[in-house]
Fold Mn-containing catalase.
Amino acid sequence: MYHHIKKLMFTVRVGTPDPRFGNMLLEQFGGANGELAAAMQYSIQGINCEDMACKDLLMDIGTEELSHLEVIGTLARMHLKPMKLNGDGAEQDPLIIIAGGGGVALHNSMGNPWTSDYLKITGELDVDLRSNIAAEARAKIVYERLIDFCDDPGSKEALQFLMTREITHMKAFTQALDSLGKAVISPANLIPGKGALSVGQIPPTPGIVSQYYNDSTGEGDQGEIDTTGPWNTGDDITVVESPALSGFQVMKASPKSGKTTLKK
Amino acid sequence: MYHHIKKLMFTVRVGTPDPRFGNMLLEQFGGANGELAAAMQYSIQGINCEDMACKDLLMDIGTEELSHLEVIGTLARMHLKPMKLNGDGAEQDPLIIIAGGGGVALHNSMGNPWTSDYLKITGELDVDLRSNIAAEARAKIVYERLIDFCDDPGSKEALQFLMTREITHMKAFTQALDSLGKAVISPANLIPGKGALSVGQIPPTPGIVSQYYNDSTGEGDQGEIDTTGPWNTGDDITVVESPALSGFQVMKASPKSGKTTLKK
Amino acid sequence: MYHHIKKLMFTVRVGTPDPRFGNMLLEQFGGANGELAAAMQYSIQGINCEDMACKDLLMDIGTEELSHLEVIGTLARMHLKPMKLNGDGAEQDPLIIIAGGGGVALHNSMGNPWTSDYLKITGELDVDLRSNIAAEARAKIVYERLIDFCDDPGSKEALQFLMTREITHMKAFTQALDSLGKAVISPANLIPGKGALSVGQIPPTPGIVSQYYNDSTGEGDQGEIDTTGPWNTGDDITVVESPALSGFQVMKASPKSGKTTLKK
Amino acid sequence: MYHHIKKLMFTVRVGTPDPRFGNMLLEQFGGANGELAAAMQYSIQGINCEDMACKDLLMDIGTEELSHLEVIGTLARMHLKPMKLNGDGAEQDPLIIIAGGGGVALHNSMGNPWTSDYLKITGELDVDLRSNIAAEARAKIVYERLIDFCDDPGSKEALQFLMTREITHMKAFTQALDSLGKAVISPANLIPGKGALSVGQIPPTPGIVSQYYNDSTGEGDQGEIDTTGPWNTGDDITVVESPALSGFQVMKASPKSGKTTLKK
Amino acid sequence: MYHHIKKLMFTVRVGTPDPRFGNMLLEQFGGANGELAAAMQYSIQGINCEDMACKDLLMDIGTEELSHLEVIGTLARMHLKPMKLNGDGAEQDPLIIIAGGGGVALHNSMGNPWTSDYLKITGELDVDLRSNIAAEARAKIVYERLIDFCDDPGSKEALQFLMTREITHMKAFTQALDSLGKAVISPANLIPGKGALSVGQIPPTPGIVSQYYNDSTGEGDQGEIDTTGPWNTGDDITVVESPALSGFQVMKASPKSGKTTLKK
Amino acid sequence: MYHHIKKLMFTVRVGTPDPRFGNMLLEQFGGANGELAAAMQYSIQGINCEDMACKDLLMDIGTEELSHLEVIGTLARMHLKPMKLNGDGAEQDPLIIIAGGGGVALHNSMGNPWTSDYLKITGELDVDLRSNIAAEARAKIVYERLIDFCDDPGSKEALQFLMTREITHMKAFTQALDSLGKAVISPANLIPGKGALSVGQIPPTPGIVSQYYNDSTGEGDQGEIDTTGPWNTGDDITVVESPALSGFQVMKASPKSGKTTLKK
């Protein structure tokens, strides 16, 4: 059950409203990485979750994101007010003024309706936590870009608050993943099928999992190169050069024997 | 520039075609976590990427996913063939038979059109890599579920191959994130704004980033509890109990001084 | 600010889970007239609302709908459980089991993603209240149909509770509209531009507003007739017979003089 | 069967074309509350309708809206002409000029494709009529806003005509609802389950239907208050204060006995 | 201006209603190649069209498609009736029964909402006519598949009528394209930039337009071959073998000189 | 299997980047008639195709379009660079800068997400080829419009190359259709059900296929006329004047006897 208190989690103050910036803010209200997306992703994962500790975590943060939705919505509405009063910026986003009367609605900065296609909910707890860590990283960088475009000190403070909380949540989700034994990453522990590289019950096929396919080769006009990194070097990695061109084709992948049959 | 070779990356063999399973397979062809989503997410991140080593990695894997798209599409089509020949299963997915003539199309198992709303592309390399790690985890678990629903040995082998490659990619993206100094996670290094918890340039506000908001409390009828975990215990964490109810409200968040002003 | 309590607003009890019915229930979770649609429509209207009394009403009901979302989501998840455990009903909705691991997600009974295109938010208070009255009527009839398809007494009780609340809300929104002087309807008071037929500031053009265009004529094979009702009879109504065929065309509509110029 | 006459229902005259205003006009061509939405909502309700009198009404107005679609489309196209001729305003809406060659298409003012998710069709006549009354109110306010943004007298006249017709339709749908005994509203007749508050066959649960849940409390920084109105005062209403916080939970709702069981 | 007559263009008779087939029929009501798509594509092209003869053609056929929409909607509704009466087939398409009360709505056979993304409208008359010829071909084959799935003689007759009309329209659009000098095709007249291969004003670059890129090579497991046809043989065609692999890259394409600069 | 070479098919050179033009270019990257749409439409038709010669053609061109996607994406990104560096043009398309960090993403010039609803894939080879011919014509005219809006010589050259290739493909698809005996069009060979007017197996009903319905009549204010063309004149055509108004209604359409029964 939910209860609403008529206080914003962060007191919003706007010096000079800027409808164009208000429009940009909608990216975090009804956009792909915005607060409704966060609130719904975590809360619905929470409804599905059968680990009671993580369920509590998901509901805590899911509920906090609802409070963030209210903060960003209020902030956007304050910036859009001149559009309502005198049509300032209306041509930029006619949807807001003509269809919405100058108020906020659940769309992004380009008027695209919010859709649950934005959400990543698999019902597999560790997978969902990884999706949440990535979601928080995305939300963090979007807030940073909004701050970079913002001149109003009061708005910047509110955005700084919201941005900070994303890092808080990123940490909490990482700790939850760690509590499942799937977060600790060190160059030494990157073993396919174990720890941070473990998902579900079925193990990856041993031979195939170690192959790196060099599917993009050559050099480009703007400095593109075919190069190496930790991902395609090292004793545990077999590089397959240009598999399409070399006639490489896998015929049988047996998870039990670990044998791979190739065909030329 | 792309070149296509008329060989599948994995030789597909289907014993007994099952149109209902063919329909399920579309989840990985035109679905939210499927192969087109993977191919497009990585390839477009690659076009935008200015780190030449990671660009190479993104194009390698993006191209491999195109080859996977071809494998899963061919596998689905083989399973759908009886629907084309005698209408078997047509009522289950009339879109396939009536609109598509029994062939595959870019929709998921419920006929929803593929949309780029599925993709997570931010133009911030480390953020994109985190999104990719999560995307691979999702694809892995979806393949596992398809294997669990599958009776045909040949189909299982193809799915096992594709599933295995997700783990390979998950490892490669983790190593790339590590090459940026943002992957190594240990209980000791979880410092907001540093390493694995660092995104962009603007640091989180010190005081606020350490607060855990206990926004969901009480006990539920099915065992829901208000509990603790590593995410809301420890010296570096301040738990704020039921912020909405306690009159908690942040008024000012200064990233420089690290001071937070609360109001009651 | 929001707070969540780990108690459902209505205690959910399911005797015999039925995944097919669980799938149907998603219509009220992530469907066009479901609880998220209600929660978002009223809460965002509330954020935009400048009448403090109605804002309170909108936030009260918007918050209650969030609690309903939790009830219906929990109920659907209990019915879907056998799909998760043994795949029962999986072919009916592969999206739930393959993509979602047997849990609920924000889509309707046919797997369509929830979209804010479902919402009706205009920023004009009396218009929004009329949209809300209609929304409650739609939700009521959908719950009634779900009850008619349901065999499980415990599920029926939960649905009866949720259905009842729609009538409560319908009454409250009607009273709010009445508090604006725009709800009271009697055959005597249906004057265009006044009371229940008043929207915004610009009055309708007197002559034109009284014309009824008989644009569909003749008799059909299944009893379709060209008939009369209160809407096209009475002293204050001018019926224009088959305007397209009679050469009727309006050339000038003057809101001040009330004169209409027609052209033949 | 339909027939088209090459006369507009309203003669469109544009003095000075304004592509930016032409773009705004698309809101009523291919937008959520526009003329195609109206035409389709009423005509399809008409196809489904089994009350022959109301079916006639729905087809009359549904057909008129098709004629309105033609008027608004022609008006928008005249305003967009300079974009076609010399690219004026093209950067504002590149979709129109690059994809559409300067003509109109079925999208709204922000380029969002028209979708039948905009429609409200339930197959329950009185519910559909309520949706139609609300739809006409929305269309009316959108036309009013377009008039407020418009400088061209000829365009204003056309919009005034179209706006006026929405009030005509609003009245007709209200009279139709009244003919079903569900429209007359007076403070005295607001009885849940009767007349204007009657939907479908299943009555609401007596005790529960009279409860008002005060789910949003406190005072906000911008004057938000927890207040009263006709909806939460009066002898027939039981106010439940902060149900989530007070441990309120409904366990059983019996439509027959009217008894509600609460649990603390 | 439109007028509606309460007669169907084709008298619909259904012997034994079949809700599953009714569901399939929705593909031509609210589906991608259905009657609303046809009606809207042609009518809106007509509104934009400045060639008065072709505008008349587009409005004639656009209006006829509205009459077809009414026929297919009525036919679908007759087949869906048992679902409304006794829930037969409801699990197959819960959207129809739960959300729509057993009536038709503007979605396809899988419940996807109709969207104007289905339409092809470019504002370039000959291009639009080509899109229309293709659209009619698609609609024809979809009707044929529906006939193949249909057991009811009366329904087959209605579908045969609608299918026949697609060929009529295909011919008319081809004749219209011919009246623009862009339809007549013979092996002799396939000259890029002329007649049937002429679009717009800018001519294609001579050298490049004659190159055929053999981008897919090799042999596949199911008989896929790298082969020849009229499209990559003949004196006027230069085949570029595996351009990506051969280092082929175009550096400059001059429409005036017809010279192409390649780079290795 | 696919391989990627780090060379663009056309060397992209941009003199003065123009973010607003970069935004327009997205129409051909993630837009309805853009390169991803082309690549996917042909490649998936190719996967479904059972004619090995046409399958090769579809894979050749499908793969080339992937290379075009890379060219247009790189070109758009070069034009968008100033938006990334200093926010130039950010208000025009906030989605690019705020959500995408200044890079390209799979949406069109108005920010609409790419959707497979853009694709036309029926699994009937000749129908698909007709759809492809029309698709190439649309892509050609869109490139021409982009060239007309472009001032930068280097960009124009790249667009000229891409535009030219559409004509090449249009010719190839026409030749493929001809190889099936369905392309040659001359005024003499337009026989319904034969050659260019042949689709599928079921012949059109003889009498009905020759009827032209004059469904739009009269004269309009802007020169609209009810006129004749090759499509409604000639011995083989029966014109039915205003069928809706004349009581025309088809009762029986027998494909065998060719008899049509009308009813008045």
Notes: Residues 193 and 204 of chain C are 6 Å apart (CA to CA). The two ends of chain C are 62 Å apart (CA to CA). The beta strands of chain C are 2-5, 211-214, 216-217, 238-241, 250-253, 260-262.
